[in-house]
Amino acid sequence: MCTIFNMFTRMFLPDFHEFHQIAYGRPINDRMGELKIEKHVKYILSVEKRKDDFVSVVMEHLRLNGAYWGLTTLDILGKLDAVDQDEVVSWVMQCQHECGGFGGNIGHDPHMLYTLSAIQVLALFDKIEVLDIEKVSNYIAGLQNDDGSFSGDMWGEVDTRFSYIAICSLAILHQLDKINVETAVKYILSCQNLDGGFGCTPGAESHAGQNFCCVGALAITGSLHHVDKDLLGWWLCERQVKSGGLNGRPEKLPDVCYSWWVLSCLIMIDRVHWIDKEKLVKFILDCQDKENGGISDRPDDAVDVFHTYFGVAGLSLLEYPGLKAIDPAYALPVEVVDRIFVSK
Amino acid sequence: MHGISRKTPSREEQDATALKAAELRDLQSQFLHLHHNKIYTKEALETSAKLLEVNPEHYTGWNYRKLAVQYFLNHQSETEVDSEYIQSVLNEELKVVENALKKNFKSYGAWYHRKWVLSKGHSSTDKELRLLGKFQKLDSRNFHAWNYRRFITMLKKISDEDELQYTTDMIYNNFSNYSAWHNRSVLLSHLFEKRGKGHCHKESVLEEEFEFVRNALFTDPDDQSGWFYHLWLLDQTVKLEPFLLSSWPPHGSSLYLSVDDYLDGRNLLPSVHFQSKDRMFPLILYFSEAVEGVNSSTVTVECEYYANDNVIWRPLSSNKFGFAQAWLTYLNFPDEVHYLKDCPVKIVVAPFPGIVSSSGISCSKTSHIEFSLCVPSHDRGHAEGQTMPRISWKDEKFYPHATQSQDASLHNSLQRLKITEEGKSKTSDWSMKTIANEIAHCRELLSSTNCKIGKLTLARLLMAQNKLISYGIPNDGIEVHYEEILGLYHDLMKLDPTHICYYEDEYSLVQLKQVTSSMESILKYCHQYGDSTSPSMDSSFCLRLNDLSLSRIGSVEQLLWIQMLDLSHNKIRSIEGLEALQLLSCLNLSNNKFCSFAALDPLRMLKSLKVLDISYNEIGAHTVDTRRYLCSSPMTHTVENDWNFKEFTNAGVEMINHWDVFFIFRDVNLIQLDITGNAVVNDQLKLFLFKLMPSLKWLDGENPN
């Protein structure tokens, strides 16, 4: 589910090619130095400047998501100071609307998807205080429906992605009491399936990305006991295919983005030891563009910012040396999350 | 980029995309201008349609079109309603969606726009199903299309039976269509719910489904789709109503409540003696699954000196929603009660339904537990705060449990751990028969192929059969197959090394089931602690499950009576479930694989715990804490907001590194703790622990005084 946060890339989908069969890897520690940190930093900073190529234009409407992916990657790589904080914060704030919600870019309509990214970016910089917390949280809380579900914006599309976004955003803002958490949890549970996973609406098929949203929302609200951890854990660990990569649903191809969606779930339910971590590390490293930086969905495909983020975040979840730890539920560095919740 | 090869584009290609980019940029800025100025002319709409055709994910583009539709419809209603006009406006929208989907049929925005248009009451069922048919043929796994299909069937009230037929067709077309199998489980769940009590119906449907899925499994045993569905069918087959599985004290036991300090030499028979300084006597009920609704109206406690109304049952789990497998209350004998001899206590569970599982099934069976209790008179003048010897877990401190005549009573009460007759759920022979049938088919399949999930399924089927047997369901003398199941998991570890830890975990659970399956077996692991030369003076009873390569714990319902437990030298990562062992006072978890203090969260609920050894684990050695979201913490909103670190930060403790220590150890009252051999240990942490637990006398063998 790379499309989970409105990723446009699936429009190029139909021409899948055979993925590489990759043999067993070496222990993770031997791989230190194989992650081209400097190149990835350079790549991310270059994407930020390249505003005129086709991909950047197509992505213009979700630039705030892009900012979150890029900046979080930089932070995990220990290079967040390579960007001008004030410039980013001021641009983020220009994406906010009167209603409190954020658009994906200046001039684009407000939506939950970008509101969470805005909050996460500000959290990275420890700049939550520039927000009118009351206003943003009222916008999010106002999108809860009677059945506990959340709409993405005023037009009413309902999806458990938005449940996650609402719960994660409000938790970061310490405003969870603005919504009915009990019905929100009930709605998520009504989307639980035969395989222990979750879909976007009741009856919808389980998908690794949707599992992240639902398991994440349940984690943040302290409700993970509702998850059959063994059943879901088995489904998730069976996402690992022979190449070491993870797919998002049974009988599908592996993709680096699932290193995030699947791994984060496995960690939240304490079943990550059920997969072969070293093989997955090797798969991700093999998806790097070692010359120009960036990570792609599969080896030798074209790189992009979100796969770079998912790859680096995945390696962080795999305890790759030299990376900052990322929190599997809030999708922010652990130190940021601990700062928000522990130091009060 | 998905499926796009990583190659440097040629000069011409670069120029072409630069041109395309410039055009799109121009189109997007034109569009935003129109949107911001609320211009809904024909030309303006065409601009937005063009934009959405190139970039179907442009959500503001879809919003604009919705605004335009609303504008037209509102404009209409002012004069007279021209249904043809409305029709044409909405038709135009459907066309734009179709064009966008042709470009990218995974576009959330496009699919939702279609739903939105349809909710305005337009388009025919046939037309939508035709469109879907086209898309689902192109990509039979597209979950947007399947979601849209469910939306249409609901909107147009297409029957579940018809849709079931559609999934059958899809599956016959390709057995590997997981989406279709999934939808089948959804539809059947609806049907089961709708037909409610038609149990026979459910059974015959499940039988047909087993046969249906067998076709797929035998055709391609390595395809996962059918196996997941098979697992769901298995779960439906063995679904029982919740019932009381075990209790402490066990039915028929007689106990002696001692008010001495622990390990005082009279503690020979753990299930016969129980010590408490406060004359508090714990009662534990353990159910077959997590339930809610255990309270003084569903469970009555009859005891001469105790009014049932005062009994408050607490769920033993860290969740705040009140579901738990184990429930706890205390009988508290007030000081006025002097000496009690053989005081009978009777517990009756669920005289009427009210105890409900998390899946909503009621416990409808009544269970009785009767035992007798001796309570000594208050204050026998035992000296408080007496120096207590440090517990050592060294092998030489343990000697095998000798079978003596006095064990008869121990033996007796263990035998009765399982609740007898009326507590058991009467499941029809059908479940047993169906499982046996599936086992036979699975064996047949495995005789011709070495299929991984087939083996796993056989192991699961055998475990399900064992479970039914242990619940006392008539089984025509079928034997329990622990060795075979262990063998299957052993094979799987070699066959599928990627998932070796999964099989190890399952293996451990089977192993513990086997260990706890009979008194003879448990006794093999029981030892006396203390000095073998004078057992009566300083001796205690310990269950030693050390050095068994266990990676996971289970079967705790058989161990509710344990006070001293040695789980050292295993590969255990989590102690989830251990909170049910409320009598536990000494616990050895050293030399395991615990990665964080958060992994010890269940200890918070063990109020009797005095001695803990967690030395030589991996606490502090990892950057990722897999128990972070399974423990009580501010991140999971599971701790009250009343905590304050000030006292500790003033003392120089870095709280941000040790919040988990705070939330776990502030609730336990240890006397002895061993933490050496963990990366996290330093002087600051030790100081913090002493500050957190004033009761602590030894930390890694050191005494602060």
From TrEMBL, chain A:
E.C. code: 2.5.1.60
Record key words, sorted: Metal-binding, Prenyltransferase, Repeat, Transferase, Zinc
Record has GTP-binding as a keyword: no
Domain of life: Eukaryota
Cofactor field: Zn(2+)
UniProt remark on cofactor binding: Binds 1 zinc ion per subunit.
CDD domains from the UniProt entry: GGTase-II
Family recorded in the similarity comment: Belongs to the protein prenyltransferase subunit beta family.
PANTHER family: GERANYLGERANYL TRANSFERASE TYPE BETA SUBUNIT, GERANYLGERANYL TRANSFERASE TYPE-2 SUBUNIT BETA
Name listed for the protein in its UniProt record: Geranylgeranyl transferase type-2 subunit beta
Organism: Forsythia ovata
UniProtKB/TrEMBL annotation, chain B:
Keyword vocabulary terms for this entry: Prenyltransferase, Repeat, Transferase
Catalyzed reactions: geranylgeranyl diphosphate + L-cysteinyl-[protein] = S-geranylgeranyl-L-cysteinyl-[protein] + diphosphate
Principal EC category: transferase
Catalytic activity, EC: 2.5.1.60
InterPro entries to which the protein is assigned, alphabetical: Leu-rich_rpt, LRR_dom_sf, Prenyl_trans_a
Protein name (Swiss-Prot/TrEMBL): Geranylgeranyl transferase type-2 subunit alpha
GO BP, sorted A to Z: prenylation
Gene3D superfamilies: Protein prenylyltransferase, Ribonuclease Inhibitor
Lineage, uppermost ranks: Eukaryota, Viridiplantae, Streptophyta, Embryophyta, Tracheophyta
Role this protein plays: Catalyzes the transfer of a geranyl-geranyl moiety from geranyl-geranyl pyrophosphate to cysteines occuring in specific C-terminal amino acid sequences.
